[in-house]
Write a structure and sequence with these properties.
The structure holds two protein chains of two kinds. Chain A is α/β, with parallel strands linked by helices. Helices cover 30% and strands 21% of the residues of chain A. Chain B is built from four helices and no strands. The model of chain B has no long low-confidence stretch (mean pLDDT 91). The chains are: A alpha/beta, B mainly alpha.
Chain lengths: 355, 85
């Protein structure tokens, strides 16, 4: 049974929360961490409900509502809500732990405790929609989003569900940023994000975001693309990647030359971008290449932005110049591959085609 | 007493994230729950913790909260009688 991406929703470091836009007004940063461009939450969430929501929940709610509205699916038609997150609501987790330490394990308030678990986002969205179906959260570092998508795909293919709301979310908080600066995972000095790929330095520009999609076994008028396949790998050497790509594509009767555009998760980390270079200069040397982390920044579920971008490109049948990496032209892309990894681990391959 | 009421209003707004409410909008006798500020059961727990942490008041019987948290005025009255800090 095919799986369709019927709608999308995004809150990111770019103005992506409005689905009628497609990177027309890109924001260029000169920084080491990027915060989201937040919509007016009052347009999406009643103030009484919003006051107790952490940032990750707010941006996920907006993203999920955007996707639900676009799909035109009634809330009671959603069979499952599946979310991927690397860090959950880490902001409230940090505050809760700080309270435990600061107050000598006394005076702990309920709100921060409620929001300090990773599955709060999926739970809050379900509460808001009144969805009593399957509710699951994958916490799997930088393949958390892909794990959620894979679960949804299998449920839809097996006929266990018709419509599933799938998403990925991660929020930035001070302590997390500080620790990752200390261990060199964040770039030491601010960089122009538009040229981060050429920074020649270690680490990445960190960011945050929420990306939600309705995946269905039935194609809706709003449909963006068909999700053909998704696969994850924990550890691969650079030499193993091309063979894994070939094998993955062959499962769908495809060769590298059949891919009209490939999306790479380049984040400008000189230590690990070689994984992408190997494919860019090898299997996909003559293929149109696209990148996105100069716009979205790096976070555990940044691949959600890549998924959003691929969906947009296929539906609109055009690649915006700001994400087009090489000079190979692309005219009416039918089949796209996304390859993402973070620090040489948690690799993912996602295959989409026009429907 | 009026200083304590002012302090309570500020704490309620801050600790319960009532971003759209200003101190001057909360009348001393406004009901905190239901109509009025519209607080709920989670807020009640937050207020119980606040009494303990900031004023040294432990509520042995949670049912007491219904009368204590009726309004800022009733809260201030209870705190001024029972506070240990």
């Amino acid at each position: 049974m095919p799986v369709y991406i019927n709608s999308i929703g995004s809150v990111s470091a770019q103005k992506t929360f409005d689905n009628s836009l497609f990177l027309e007004d890109v924001i260029c940063y000169n920084d080491t961490v990027l915060k989201i461009i937040a919509p007016d939450y009052k347009d999406y969430i009643p103030p009484a409900a919003a006051r107790r929501m952490a940032k990750g929940i707010k941006m996920s709610t907006v993203s999920a509502k955007t996707a639900m509205t676009e799909a035109g699916i009634e809330e009671n038609e959603i069979d499952a809500i599946i979310v991927g997150t690397g860090l959950g609501c880490i902001g409230d987790s940090e505050k809760f732990v700080r309270d435990i330490i600061g107050n000598k394990e006394q005076f702990l308030t309920p709100t921060r405790f409620i929001q300090s678990s990773h599955n709060t986002v999926a739970g809050q969205i379900a509460l808001g929609m009144g969805c009593k179906g399957h509710n699951f959260t994958y916490v799997h570092s930088s393949i958390s989003f892909e794990s959620a998508v894979l679960d949804a795909k299998m449920q839809l293919e097996n006929g266990e569900a018709n419509h599933i709301l799938v998403g990925g979310v991660d929020e930035l908080v001070d302590h997390h940023v500080k620790t990752h600066e200390l261990i060199g995972h964040i770039k030491e000095r601010p960089v122009e994000t538009m040229s981060v790929i050429n920074s020649g330095t270690k680490g990445a520009v960190f960011a945050e975001g929420a990306h939600f999609f309705t995946l269905s076994s039935v194609q809706r008028p709003s449909c963006y693309a068909e999700l053909m396949g998704i696969k994850t790998y924990n550890t691969l050497t650079q030499n193993q990647v091309p063979e894994k790509v070939r094998t993955f594509l062959s499962e769908y009767g495809l060769e590298p030359n059949d891919i009209d555009a490939v999306i790479f998760g380049y984040n400008g980390d000189v230590e690990f971008d070689g994984y992408y270079n190997g494919l860019a200069n090898g299997l996909f040397k003559n293929t149109a290449q696209v990148y996105f982390k100069h716009l979205s920044g790096e976070f555990d579920t940044a691949s959600g932005f890549g998924f959003w971008l691929a969906s947009k490109i296929i539906k609109e049948q055009r690649v915006p110049n700001v994400v087009h990496l090489n000079a190979v032209p692309v005219d009416g892309p039918e089949t796209m591959l996304i390859y993402n990894q973070y620090r040489g681990e948690n690799h993912s391959l996602t295959l989409l085609r026009r429907c | 007493m009026s200083e304590l009421k002012q302090e309570l209003k500020e704490k309620i707004i801050e600790q319960l994230n009532l971003e759209d409410v200003a101190v001057e909008e909360i009348k001393d006798t406004d009901p905190l729950f239901g109509e009025g500020l519209g607080l709920d059961s989670i807020d009640a727990l937050e207020l119980i913790v606040m009494l303990d942490k900031d004023y040294g008041i432990k509520l042995d019987d949670p049912k007491q909260g219904k009368t204590i948290f009726e309004s800022v005025e009733t809260m201030a009255g209870y705190i001024s009688k029972h506070r240990s800090r």
